[in-house]
UniProtKB/TrEMBL annotation:
It catalyses: 2-deoxy-D-ribose 5-phosphate = D-glyceraldehyde 3-phosphate + acetaldehyde. The gene is deoC. InterPro entries: Aldolase_TIM (IPR013785), DeoC (IPR011343), DeoC/FbaB/LacD_aldolase (IPR002915). CDD domains: DeoC. Its EC number is 4.1.2.4. GO terms for molecular function: deoxyribose-phosphate aldolase activity. Keywords: Lyase, Schiff base. Pfam families: DeoC (PF01791). Pathway: Carbohydrate degradation; 2-deoxy-D-ribose 1-phosphate degradation; D-glyceraldehyde 3-phosphate and acetaldehyde from 2-deoxy-alpha-D-ribose 1-phosphate: step 2/2. This is Deoxyribose-phosphate aldolase. SUPFAM superfamilies: Aldolase. Belongs to the DeoC/FbaB aldolase family. DeoC type 2 subfamily.
Length: 317
């Protein structure tokens, strides 16, 4: 964006449906070529050895270690929590991850397993991943997860409503979910792979911020494409501009498809260059991932030992 919206423009945007539509469609159009070229350019930055180890540790500390499968069990979640607490048991100086993310019926299991660690428990809710149920059921899902002890909620927006131009409906639903969260932080999943255009990603990002989302998240991980660098650039621009106007810090979470250390470092470079170093903290940036952590741990050992350790030396999920 060439210029951040003013405080009065933000206040006017949420007056009614017409004002919200006018604001969202008044956002500058995205220069696709420029966006993709900048994302590609930042992705070629080289990171030297000491900085690379620091980047790996930072990335580990930002991981939302995730299992969201129909076959998930209490035992699998407890094992995941053990890995979250001690990602590399042979190297106790390895940072803990930021959170463990599970379905709401397994949130209580994760809460018990992580008690006293400072690791957050995130629960997907609102009929993840499709979100195709009545709002009352979505809110009950959120309330169940919060009652089980989840302190972060990852909700999905109604993409059908958004793509049909029913922005007010999406806005009100996010507000209702935010209220149901109580003290829990809310991550709003845009499912950018279904939004079709960069302009829609920009609009959905601002819509989620206006409605009170603490984080904006790219994807459920169930739709392709999931997280991409250009889309994450747009979302980082949105939270940066939100801060410039309101003074409030909101976070970004790319999720899905980020599987290796090289990719993770590209995202950290984007955070630093697009939003700013202030966002290089788990409080404002997360990776939604399952397999990423294993590669980060292998590359961490390579940096420390001076040779490639391979997957046999790291506990694989």
């Amino acid at each position: 964006m060439a210029q951040s919206p003013t405080s009065s423009e933000l206040a006017d945007a949420v007056r009614d449906d017409r004002s919200l539509r006018r604001f969202l469609h008044g956002l500058p159009g995205v220069d696709q070529v420029g966006l993709e070229q900048r994302a590609a350019g930042l992705g070629t930055r080289s990171i030297k050895k000491d900085a690379k180890l620091q980047a790996i540790d930072t990335a580990i500390s930002m991981v939302d270690l995730t299992t969201l499968e129909g076959a998930d069990t209490d035992g699998k979640v407890r094992a995941l929590c053990a890995k979250a607490r001690r990602p590399d048991p042979a190297r106790p100086d390895t940072p803990q991850v930021a959170a463990v993310c599970v379905y709401s019926d397994l949130a209580a299991t994760a809460v018990r397993a992580l008690e006293g660690t400072g690791i957050h428990v995130a629960s997907v809710a609102t009929a993840f991943p499709a979100g195709r149920v009545a709002q009352a059921i979505k809110l009950a899902d959120v309330e169940h997860a919060v009652a089980a002890g989840a302190d972060e909620i990852d909700m999905v927006i109604d993409r059908g409503a958004f793509l049909s131009g029913r922005y007010g409906q999406v806005f009100e639903e996010i507000k209702a979910v935010k209220a149901a969260c109580g003290d829990a932080h809310l991550k709003v999943i845009l499912e950018t792979g279904e939004l079709a255009t960069y302009d829609n990603v920009r609009r959905a990002s601002w819509l989620a911020l206006l409605a009170g989302g603490d984080f904006i998240k790219t994807s459920t991980g169930k739709v392709s494409p999931a997280a991409t660098l250009p889309v994450t650039h747009l979302m980082l621009q949105a939270v940066r501009d939100w801060r410039d106007t309101t003074g409030e810090l909101r976070g970004v979470k790319p999720a899905g498809g980020i599987r290796n250390t090289k990719d993770a470092i590209r995202y950290l470079v984007a955070v630093h260059e697009v939003a700013g170093p202030e966002w290089l903290t788990p409080e404002l940036f997360r990776f939604g991932a399952s397999s990423l952590l294993n590669d980060l741990l292998m590359q961490r050992r390579t940096q420390l030992d001076g040779h490639y350790s391979g997957p046999d030396y790291v506990a694989v999920d």
